[in-house]
Design goal:
Oligomer: single chain
Number of domains: 1
Largest sheet: none
Radius of gyration: 17 Å
Distance between the termini: 63 Å
Strand content: under 5%
Structural class: mainly alpha
Shape: globular
Amino acid sequence: MDTKKEVEKEAPPKFAMLDIVLDVTSDRVDGLELDLLIKAQEADMRAMRDTLAHFLTDRDGNYVKKEVAQVVIGKMTIGQLKIESAKLQGALREDAAPKASEKASDLPSATT
């Protein structure tokens, strides 16, 4: 019966998912407004939508216009929101952590 457990683990979520692709690159993270991210982390749903929309790409990998992206993200189910926001938070943490190859002297200074 181990086979059944493996199949259950691989089964897709039971909610309808939109075809959402978020491209969380360092450049895109750098362009995210701090106030929007703070509101999103405080569980402001509109800010969470807008934050996810910031990273939405089309099938060709092009970023979607803000207004269109907000509408698409607004159609997500709560189940998908949980998945995508967890992915985004992980990517943001990974991007924010200094890489082993980076030294403090190599990073841009706030005074320059």
